[in-house]
Specification:
The protein is α/β, with parallel strands linked by helices. It folds into two domains: about 200 residues, Glycogen Phosphorylase B (Rossmann fold, 3-Layer(aba) Sandwich); about 170 residues, Rossmann fold (3-Layer(aba) Sandwich). Helices cover about 30% and strands about 20% of the residues. The two termini are about 15 Å apart. The C terminus is likely disordered.
């Protein structure tokens, strides 16, 4: 059921147990940037949603990645929702006991983890609200009620953008806005990398590029319209297709789906683009998003055209760092203008902006908030958990 890993404990900081709806090996984004930094100073466990693929007894898979421990529950295929909660609770208690975790922080990315963690007594509870999950396709019906409970239990709440902050700030006394940041040095490589990846080098120019998850947030009619209006342009889309039928994606000779790429390889792809785009629909799923890729495109030195996503318009569109357009005609015109604008002037303005942001800075400020709430609780000996039998758990 559980096998420990050789992970030397840190007594200076509480261990951190992160509960996420996102796979660690999925798109490298906010949770990965933050947890890899926390893992430099403390033991970090990243608990994923379960995989329903076990033939026998439920178990935990533990693997080391990027300095932390990735924890994946494996449950039987026929597990009921109620049994799944009980089994995850049982497995998590076994992890805490087996790893000798005494003082710990629970860091939530999803309220759906509450049913199997509400019995725990952490030093602090963090809700890092990076998206309005209730607005996404196939959101569980109980999510909103669980978010209310998590808001009540949280020691501190972080939001992934200003729109989310405005929506959450009246619901908790300790809410702080932390828009997603950027690893400037990583994406700045796109300004120097002239070696086109093999699957992009044969695509014509100009290239209009996007990277990220391709899901219900994408304005597919807009992409189809731009491709039809300018058949001499080539639209490059990088990222996994999630929660939508691939058959619904626009198909044209000048639209190129290159699939998911590693975070390490993204600068090489962006280097070969003429314009970077954020072609999101204006719907419930995008109402509160603050796209990380805005700053990443800026660090890469690319001109940017986006639809009128609130956290892109304010502040990037308002200060002229991103061109905003919503319909096909305006989007095409904005992409044309982006290709001809003075690059030196644009780079000077974007560099001034991104100079003041980094994931290191965001992490340090979040850690300071975490230190404030954990200092409230005195470090007293925590009771040692003994993993109950699975029969008792169920």
């Amino acid at each position: 059921m559980y096998a420990g890993m050789s992970n030397p404990p840190s007594r200076q900081h509480s261990d951190l147990i992160c509960l996420s709806h996102l796979r660690w090996a999925f798109v490298f984004q906010r949770p990965q940037h933050l947890m890899t930094r926390f893992a430099r100073e403390r033991r970090c466990y990243y608990v994923e949603e379960p995989l329903y693929d076990a033939d026998g007894a439920a178990s935990l898979e533990l693997r080391a990645a990027d300095g932390l421990t990735i924890v994946t529950p494996h449950l039987r295929r026929d597990t009921s929702p109620a049994a799944a909660v009980a089994m995850q609770r049982h497995l998590l208690d076994g992890l805490i006991s087996g790893e000798a975790i005494e003082h710990f922080v629970l860091w939530y990315y999803t309220p759906m983890a509450l049913p199997f963690t509400r019995h725990l007594e952490p030093d602090a509870v963090v809700f890092d609200c990076m998206d309005e999950l209730s607005a996404f396709a196939h959101a569980p019906r109980e999510l909103l009620a669980l978010e209310d409970e998590l808001m009540h239990r949280a020691s501190v709440v972080f939001t992934g953008g200003h729109s989310l902050y405005d929506a959450k700030r009246e619901r908790h006394p300790n809410v702080h806005v932390f828009p997603s940041s950027v690893d400037v040095a990583h994406f700045a490589r796109a300004r120097e990398d002239r070696q086109d990846p093999d699957d992009q080098k044969g695509i014509g120019r100009p290239r209009i590029g996007f990277f990220g998850v391709i899901d219900e947030r994408m304005d597919l009619p807009l992409l189809a319209g731009v491709a039809a209006a300018r058949p001499d342009w080539h639209i490059v889309l990088i990222g996994p297709v999630v929660k939508i039928d691939p058959a619904t994606l626009p198909a044209a000779a000048n639209i190129h789906y290159l699939g998911q790429k590693s975070y390490e390889d993204l600068p090489a792809y962006i280097a070969g683009w003429d314009v970077a785009i954020i072609p999101f629909a204006r719907n419930a799923a995008t109402r509160y998003i603050s796209p990380t890729k805005t700053l990443e495109y800026m660090a890469a030195g690319k001109p940017i055209v986006s639809t009128s996503i609130c956290d892109v318009v304010h502040p990037y569109g308002e200060v002229g760092l991103v061109q905003i357009a919503d319909d096909v005609e305006a989007f095409v015109a904005a992409c044309e203008a982006a290709q001809t604008e003075a690059g030196i002037s644009r780079l000077a303005r974007t560099d001034t902006f991104v100079r003041h942001t980094s994931w290191d800075r965001t992490w340090r400020e979040m850690r300071a908030q975490l230190d404030r709430v954990t200092a409230v609780r005195a470090f007293v000996p925590a009771p040692r958990l003994t993993a109950p039998s699975l029969a008792d758990a169920i």
